[in-house]
């Protein structure tokens, strides 16, 4: 079973990564979708924390799984936004 502290630590870590990803999305959107190393690192961090969430869910109780599921949805949302920003939408027009 996942300890309460381990779940809280993972939530804090994920929130920190989400904050960084949000900043990178904002910067990238203002700079005309230019992707840099910080942006790529933010994506890698989100991918890493998403895997940690999945692993933690296997040993979590019902309440913890609910918290982790909501966190997973946030992380997935940011990851999707970052992937879509890498696609040159003008290419399809």
Overview of the molecule:
This protein is an all-alpha fold and 93 residues long. It has one domain (4-86). Helices cover 80% and strands 0% of the residues. The protein has three helices and no strands. The chain has helices at residues 4-30, 37-58, 62-86. Helix 1 packs antiparallel against helix 2 (37-58). The chain is elongated, with a radius of gyration of 15 Å. The chain starts with a helix and ends in a 7-residue tail after the last helix. The model has no long low-confidence stretch (mean pLDDT 88).
Which key phrases capture this entry?
single chain; 93 residues; mainly alpha; elongated
Helix count, DSSP H or I runs of 4 or more residues: 3
Distance between the termini: 51 Å
- Mean pLDDT across all amino acids: 88
Shape: elongated
Oligomer state equals single chain
Q: Beta-sheet strand percentage?
A: under 5%
Give the uncertain stretches in residue-range form: none
- Relative helix content: over 70%
Instruction: Give a count of the beta strands, DSSP E runs of length 2 or more.
Output: 0
Structural class: mainly alpha
**C-alpha-based Rg, rounded:** 15 Å
Number of domains: 1
